[in-house]
Structure formats: C-alpha cells, structure tokens
C-alpha cells in the first residue's frame, strides 16, 4: 500500500519569505497542506521537489543561485552584477508571499535580471509569451524578491477604462450622517501610482480598443487628471513645486504626487498568432518588452498536491516517460513555428496535420498525477486527455493528426498510443474504494493508495449508499459513474480544479452532486450565460434599502471563503476571456476582487498573520481574506466528444483555458447503462423502453453528423437527453397506454421544428416502428369533492393549509366573474397531459404562438385542482432584484418585501412565469437553477435551497427552504421569427416537461367558438375557422409572416356579435390592416377566404374605402370649415399626362399623380397604366368611382396599357417570346419567391454595437442616475454590453450574400435525367426576385464554377439586375455556359475563393451558399476537403446545397459534412425552406 503522508505546520514556517530565505526554492515544491506544516519549509518542500526533479528530468536541485541578498547591505538584492535596493513594504498584504519560480534556473534569473535593469531605469515592462501562468509567476516572483507592493487587474472585454482602472463612484452613508453622498473611489492604476506600487495588468490583448489609452499619459509622464478634481503629477515636478509652496497649498490645488516607485508590468500574448486585439501603437511604444518562453518542464505553475509523497518505486520509469513526453510537446510547439513544408505538422493554419498545442501547465499536472498515482503511467494514453483537452473535445484529432502524433512519439521513443475512444467506461487505473475522515483510498491492480484529502463541512454519505445528497434522487452505481467520480476524487486529492466535459445529458451534474455528497461538500452553482462578464463571476454591484451601493460576492467567492464546491455550469456559454479572468484564483489561489478585497490561500494567510502580527479579524478588516483549503471549482461544459462539432461551440476552449483545469471526460451512456438506469429509476416496461432507446440511439446519431443537412438541423433544434428519457419513462410506467409517438413529439416540440427537420423526425420514428395512435381517445373532465379526473388521469384536489389563508384568493377563477374558459377537446387533452406531469412533480413549460390560450389553459387547470398560484411576467428589463424582492415605501422608508417567486417557493404555491422568452439570458439561467437544483440566489444575499440532509447546516439569516409542493409553470412563445424573444426552449428547455400549445383543430375550434359567439351564424363560423386554418398553414409554409391565432379569430367574432350588420370586409380590417402594404399577403388571404366560401368585396387597400352600399345610415359625412371636396373630373380618355416633379392628387393633367382620372398614376381611374412618382402620397378612389367609367374609355386605356407594355419590353430589349420564357420560369417559383422574401425580411441584424447600456442593476454608477440612487432606486448603473438592434431597424451594414452556382458540363448533360439545370436557373431567379426590393439590407453576387473557371461572374456585388431582361440575361448566360464549357470540376477552388472573397467587404454578416450537383466523386473530391474549406473562416456562414444527384451520392456527401453545412434539394420548392434553416441554424 502506498500512503501519501500529510505535512505538518509550525510557527517557524510562518516567517516572511525574505526573512527565512524561501525566495530560493522552486514553485513546484509548493504544497497545499492539510494540518500542520513541517518545521523547516524548505525541508518539507525538498521532499516532493526531489520527486519532481526526477520526473521533469532536471539534474539540479537548489544549486547555488545567482540571486542573493547582499551581506554588506541587507536592504539590497542582487542577480549577477545588478542590484536593487529593498524598501520594507508599508502594507505587506500587497506583497506576493512567495517566489513562484525556481531560483536555480538560469532562464528565470536572466528574466529577473532584465526586470531589475528596467526597474532601475524607471521603465515599464511588457512580458509577452504563450498563454499560461508563467509570465504572471515571473512578475510576482520579481515583486516577492524586491518586497514590492502591487495592484493586480485581469483585463477582459468588459473592462472599463474609467471605473476599473481610474476611478468609480459609490453612494455611501457616512458614519453618523443622515443623508447619502456620492464619493469617488480610486481604481487600481490610481492607487498604484499614488502608493508607489507595481501595477500588474494581465490579458492586455483582451481589452477593447480605447480602454488602455487612458493610461498613456500616466505611463509617459506620470500624470493623470482624475474625475474627483485631483491631478496626479510627476514626482520631480511635485518636489520642485514643494520647494516654493507649502504642502497645504498643493493640497488646495488638488495636486497629488505620483510615487517614483510606481511601475507597470503588462502581461500579454502575441497577436497574431493568438487571438486578441492588437496593441495600440502609442500604448505599445511606452513599454520595454521581453518574450518569455515556456520550458515545458513543469516549472511554469504551482503544485497543489495535498501531501508529500515518498518517491514511487518506479520513479526512473516515470521520469523517463515524462522526459520523452516533454520532448514531444516541444516538438509540437516547434512545428507551429517552422516553415519547412515536409514536417509532420507543417503548413498554414488550415493544415489538417497540425497538432494543437499542449497547455503550459500540462507537464506539471502530469507530474503531480504520477507522483501520487504512479500506476496511471500504465495507461499513459489516458493521462494526456486530462491535460490536453484539444485532443478529444469537439472535433478532436483527425486521422492525420493521430498518425502524426503516433509517428512523432515513436521517433522520440515514446511508446504511447492515443486511445481517444468514444464512450470509454474506464479512463483511470484507480477506483475510489473508501472515504474516511481526512483521507481517501484508491485501488489499482497493484494495490492501493491512501491520500490525505480535504473534506466538506457536512456529514458525508457512505460510498455504498445510493444517495446524491441534499438534492434528493437515487444514485445508480454503474462502472462509468464510478470511473468518473474516481477521476474527480483524484483531481481533488491533487488540489486541482477540474472541468467535466461531455454531451448534454451524460450525467455531469449527477456526478458532481454524488462526489459532493461522498466528501461532505455543499455546492454553490453559477449558471453561466452568454453575456456574462468576468466581473459577474466574482462580484456584482448592489444597492441597499437606504440607497447606498455595495459589492455583493458571487457564489464563487462565497464558496472560496466557506470551503464549498463552486460549480460553474456551462462554460460553453461564455467567452474564453470571461473564464480566463479567473486564472490567478485557479492557478495561484489568489484573487483581487473589484471592491479591492484580496483573497489568498490559507497557507499564505497564515504567513501574512505572522509577518504582520495581526489577527484574522484585523486582516479581514483590512480587506484580506483566507481562501478555505477545501475550496474547489468544478466547471461543466456540454460539448460533443470525439467527432465533428461547430467551431463556435468550441470558442471557449482556448490554450489559456486548457492550462486552468484538469479535464475529465464524461462520455455518453451506453445503451445498456442507460437501459439499466431508466429501468431502475422508473420501472418502465421492457417493450416501450427498448423502442425508446432504439429511437434515442438513431436520433443521437443525427447530432453526430450521421444524416443530411435537415437531419442535423433537427438534432440541433431538439435534444433527447437522459433526463428527458427519464421523464418519458416515468409517464409510461404510471400510464402504460402512453403513446411513445406522442411523448417524443411533445419532448421535441415538433410543431415548432423546421418543416424538413420535422419530416426527418417522422422518418426516424417510422424506422423505429413507433407509429401514431390510430384513433385518439376523446377525454372529458369530471370533478368530485376530493378528485378531478382528466379522462383516465386522476388528480386530488388541493386543500389550502390553515396557516395560508390568503392562498384562497390566489386560486384562479375562469368561470363566474372570470375571463371565461370554453371547454374543447384539444385543451382537455392538453390538460390531461399536464395533469400527468404535475402529479409526477415536474416543472412545466407551455410554449406556443401568441393567442393560443396558454394562460387560460393554465388558469383553468389550477382552478379545477384548487391550487393557488403566484404570477410573474418577465420582460427585457427584468432583473434578479425585481424578480425576487419588491420595494415599498412605508412612512418615508423604503422596505423590500418578498416577490411572488419567493412567496411561492417558501409557501409551496405554483409559480406562473409568463413571457419567459422575453427575459434576459441571465434571468433564464437563474430559472434553470431553480428548476433543476432547487437553488436560486437572491439579490439581497439570501438564497432559495432545498432542505439539506443535515438541518444544522441551515443558515436562518440567509437560507429560504424550498417547499416540497412548489412547482413552476413557464409560459413562452415559440422561438424564431416573427417572435422577438430569446430561444428559451433551446437554452434550458430540457429541465422542464415541455408541452406545445397549438391552435385547436377545426372541430375543437368550432366547438369553442360556438360557446364564445353563440349569435354568429354557424356557417360563417365554420367558414372563418377554415380560412384561418389556411392562413396558419400558409405561415408554416413561409407564405405569410404572421401566425394568425385563435385570439385574432375570437376578436373578429366578438366584433361580429356586437355589430352584426357590419360588412365582413370591414370586420376583417380589425385584424388584417397591419399588413395593408403587403400585396402578396392579400393574395393568400383572398385565396383562403374564397376557398371556404367567403367572397368579400375588398381586402387590403381596396377595403380602406367604404363602397357606399347598405343604406343611408352607412353614408358618413364630414364637414369642412373651409371649402369642400370636389368630385373627380369626368373620364374622357387615357393619356400619359404632363411631367413634373411635384405631387398631385386628383385632376386629369399630370402623370404620376394619385386619385385622378385619365392620366397614368396610382389609385385613380381610366388611366392607361400604373405610374408611381417618388414621394407621391397615394390616395385611392373608391371602387364605385373607379368603375364609373364608360366602356370605350376603359378599352382605350387597355390598348394604351398594352402599347406601354410593348414599349417597356423594347426598352429592356425583351421580345414577346423572351417575356413568355421569363414568365414561365417565374411562375414555376412564384410561391417560393414569396416564401423566400418573407424569410429574408425576417432575418435580423447580427451586428451588435457594444455601448453603454443604461438602467442596469449592476455595473458602473451612472452619473445621470445619482439622484435616483439617493432616493432608493436600484437601476442606477450602466455597463458595457452589446445592444441588440430592434427588429426591422435599418442595418448599419448590409448582410453580404454570395451564391456560387454549378454551371459545369454535367449540369447540362444530366438535366434531362433529373432537371438539375432547370432547378438551378429557377433558384437563381428566385434569389434575384426575392432580393430585388431588399437592397438596403443585403448585398449579393452570383458567380459560377465549371471546368473552365472557378469564378464566372454573373451578377457583380452590389449591382443586381435592374429589370426582367437583365435577370433573364443572367439565366441565359448560366445555361449557355453549362452547355459549351469544358468538362471538369472546380468546386473546391470555387468554394475556397468564395469564402475568401466575401469577407473583403465590410458587412453585418456573411453567407456563402454553394450549389453543386454532387458529381464530386468522379473528380476524386473528398467530403473532408470540402468540409475543411466550408469551415475555414468562422466569420463566414457557408453551406453546400446539392441540387442534383446520381443515386445516393448527395446523401452520402451530406453525412460526411459538418452538421448543418450540407443539404439536399431535389425539388425547387424545398430550397426556401432550406435557406430558412440555414439562416436560423447555421449562423
């Protein structure tokens, strides 16, 4: 048995580093101890450092260093011949406690000597190098050696030049004062300049432009004007003034002396090759730079091993393994730098053989792991993934890269095969076998290891139990889970923070909660969201009830202080820069918080207490706090593993992030494991369970690129996680007659999937033998005193508790005195589905179009079962504070009371969350936490939490215990256009039981409307129901842009019932006047009305004027005070009219007027043709006036119109035959043009301007809101953020579209086979016609490729064809080129050129669509080569559309392309639908 001995601690070790000389030991010897430390810190460090020196291949340990304290002058430190004086620090808490780099390495000493020289010259320094902690450790080591105080700031894209670096405002109540005052608080740069500290700025490349220039004058001249009126001046200038003036005078002038000891050390990475913002030349010129290269030997970071280990028995073999691995890492790095094109990983950034970098801390992490768990060396291939995440997360290594690695390893003598296998069940040689107080036992094939380990504050659960801790549920023991938890425990024993990565539903949360329960930890969960800032992760601004401001610690900081596990849930949602701001906390266990608080490790805190001679309370009062030694961070990321993934899904995983965590793979469950888990937890019958699992396996294959383009869109639009399968199985177990077909459609919200994706879902269901119920059961609702029955589902009536009398008033009323509910078959069926989930304790999500009855349905259900509800409605300005507390003014004092959400959670009521899709993403993540774990942080520092197993752990001042009867019903609109909310379902839908609420079917709708409008004729009701059904189908088909709902129809009937004599065409205006300018819509409307027997006289513009029929009471008159209207002139004969540039209304002289007679114009009568003059207001004559024209005049007008048409054709050089050809092609795609135009109009701007967002509840204090702050208002902050443009707003930049058509010889040759050329020409015309009126929104061009050329320009960028003839010429050119070009294929070159050319123009967004006939195999073109080009530029949304195929070739190609990047359209009618999917899914 191998035992890791705990270290001891004594007071002697608490001396300052400079006094005891620990400046000379290596950082890899740093030990985070549990218990007492040994009497001599160097001695305790040497033991493990001996192991490290062997493992890293170092031949020296503590050799004579060149860094010495001068014997003659103890106040100097020298490196070689460079010495610098040391001034004792006035505030030692700002001095790094220890040296973080080894002083026996010459490269470190050379860097430090250079820094000494720059310091002596008074120059600011810039340390530049690859991502990782080495640069920061070098800077902090220098500050430790010279005993220098420092300020630290990690930059990110939300860093504010003013408040983060310069000054910020706080509203404070001074001691003894009655009122509030606004005060300026110095930022880090100002404090450092005045106090003579070194300002360490990390992440220079992450700051937005124009942020860092605020420091330019301070860097150059040591001068800065401050917002509070003070002015920092150069020390020499201040001293000169002091000779002639008194200190009091200078103070009165608001002059402040900059310290001569002030320096700046900037840390950054080179841009390029690393991502980031380039340096501003004026800022760059003020620094002296030093490139800091990583040795990749484990000395870059700190060791977090909990105990000191005896050297492993096979130390030499482990050392040899690490030495060879280090050579491999260095070789990989070298191949990124050289230009030799024959090396294994050479070439440009697109070369598929180029291996990803190893993180800077990889060797040190592997060294730590093998120090404590030496048997892991047996499966070295399983060690690498923990520290080299780029090898397996997302796209992983392709075959060429894997072969390159194997070849390189073999060349360097490393016998190591990467076993990056999908869904591996055992990735460690050890298994956690026992957990006792302060230690854990791990078993391997060679014996066991007992490791001292930190424990949480609560009672741990036994390893043999099935408990998951406070959050309830049953843990199912499986080999996969045991392996995952063993690897988490290993990382914890090594003192490392970790990141669990796996696909959605793989059990990451369950593994974390099980681990926490085993080791007695409580958790603090931070749900990450896309707009989360780096500061949000640490602290948020808040406002007290008296209006004063404060900083509130995040759950992460609370966990650090209290020794809990901080769960960062969803790293894939946030930007890499947000996570990178935590580097110092993760890698060094130190943090400088936005409010100035310093967090440091428990060991360093003890040294600081000893050095300063202060107690814990005194240091806390000075703003220094100890990080609990048991604190750990466990992050999660839901990313596909070991196969194709989209680049944007991996944007968070940079080399910098790779150096922060130990990565733990959580693979998908095997079908056997998932079956066992579902059977154990639900008792689902075997038959349905087998069918469900078969479907789930095929469905998940689509997400991995196993299908065509629309199938991968299906997999992206809908998920099927284990959590959702559990939900289905629970329903089936309780109701064996549950239809799997219905359950799967409900889970996937199939009514709101894109059409082609919905069809793909049907295909998979049919393939799995899951069919719909042939005859759905008709259910009815019956009630008794104790039970409500929804068909065969029985729900007990709720009895209001005696201590909650007010709850009776919160039970909805939809009948007597209420808004009314009308029973119908569809809503009864939905209530039955809701009742099943409600009785199972599920939280519900009802999602649907507007006006389909989601609120009424919910209220009716709760009324029937007698449940009281609390109601909240979300909107874009909803904040955590407004959601959780409500301010009231009583006796002139602001008092905060619990919101409906908190009351519902505390008292066990149902919480209705309405308009959830309108809420900010941050609120969405908070609701996810409440639904998933029962936890929710409140704005006032309290939190909602489930009842813990240990009641003594409840903090009565902070904890609100979640009532077991609490349930949530969320109401949201469907995602996508025309709804303007967030995709609530896509973000967190899987934690709710989802129900799609659609408009009722025709029978149910008629049943409902007969109750609602009993006096409206039944035939008219039926006709309107049928017409609205047609309009809804037209919306699904993309023909209209608005989903007409039951609400609109009920409003029409309400009007008809009250005003039965109103003509129907005028009644319809109440709903359809919104679209009065959409001529194409009224074509659809008229067709729908006529199809169902409603022959209205006029719609749209024609309905705007009454026709005068129906009696004198309908004649409306208006009297004018001056003058009176004239009848239009008599129609005497058609003519063009006289020309001018003035608007004209009425009359019969001027061309281009409106509402006149005889002349060409708009809205008049008897004119020869329509002619609209720009700027001319449109006035239309009533139809009866228009028709009051003699027949001979009408005929003359028709003749003149025909002559004008022929003249128009002559002008555009189009013959009658050509016009007929054009019209034939146009008519083939007329419907598709209308669909595509609706789609293009609905695409929103992608560009989001980063600006100051006002009326925020955290951020920077807005000077314009100071008065409001003093009165107690909380939304008084501003913050940098992306302002989403309003829908339909004019884009600052157009979207850039490029269409690449295949005009090769095969298009012509095979046209008779499958019509591919015809389809291509129709697609081109569809595109040109649809974009004709959208020039302000889109700039497009059309090019072709063939055997002759990869770029044949048909429509140049920004020069669309102006008329029909020009469009026809484009089509004729495409056809002719296909007929006469040489054979050959240039698809790859054409796609590559298109992707490169399109970004040459500045645009809001870039879309490239490549049309191909899938005839690629004939020319040896591999799908991987095409896929590589399609994904080569992340700014370009590129896709390939196969419009022809020989056999199954097109489908085979799409299966081998990245998800959502390839589609098959063998029918022209499919193309608009595919373009819609591309716009909504690919971007």
Task: Supply the key terms.
1483 residues, globular, alpha/beta, 51 strands, 6-stranded mixed sheet
Can you describe this structure in just a few lines?
The protein has 1483 residues and is of the alpha/beta class. Helix content is 37%, strand content 16%.
Low-confidence stretches: 6-66, 339-350, 1107-1113, 1286-1290
Report the biggest beta sheet as strand number plus sense, adding barrel if it closes.
Answer: 6 strands, mixed
The chain-level structural class is: alpha/beta
Number of DSSP strands? 51
Taken as a percent bin, the fraction of beta residues is 15-25%
Amount of helix: 25-40%
Shape: globular
Distance between the termini: 56 Å
Strand order of the largest sheet: 48-47-46-49-50-51
Q: Total number of helical segments?
A: 53
Overall pLDDT score: 79
**Gyration radius, in Å:** 36 Å
Describe the model.
This protein is of the alpha/beta class and 1483 residues long. It contains 53 helices and 51 strands. The longest helix has 23 residues, at 315-337.
Helices and strands in order:
Blueprint: E1 2-3, H1 17-20, H2 41-55, E2 67-69, E3 76-79, E4 82-85, H3 106-120, E5 125-128, H4 134-145, E6 150-154, H5 161-166, E7 167-172, E8 181-186, H6 188-195, E9 198-202, H7 216-221, E10 224-225, E11 231-233, H8 235-244, H9 247-252, E12 255-257, E13 263-268, H10 281-284, E14 288-291, H11 315-337, H12 362-372, H13 380-387, H14 399-411, E15 431-436, E16 439-444, E17 447-452, H15 479-493, E18 498-502, H16 508-518, E19 523-527, H17 534-538, E20 539-543, E21 549-553, H18 555-562, E22 565-569, H19 576-580, H20 583-588, E23 591-592, E24 598-601, H21 602-612, H22 616-621, E25 624-627, E26 632-638, H23 655-658, E27 662-665, H24 671-682, H25 686-703, H26 709-717, H27 722-734, H28 740-748, H29 755-767, E28 781-783, E29 787-790, E30 793-796, H30 825-839, E31 844-848, H31 854-865, E32 869-873, H32 880-884, E33 885-890, E34 893-898, H33 900-907, E35 910-914, H34 921-933, E36 936-937, E37 943-945, E38 959-961, E39 967-973, H35 984-988, E40 993-997, H36 1002-1012, H37 1018-1036, H38 1046-1058, H39 1064-1072, H40 1079-1091, ...
Helix pairs in contact: 3-4, 11-12, 15-16, 24-25, 24-27, 25-26, 26-29, 36-37, 37-40, 38-39, 44-48, 44-53, 48-49, 50-51
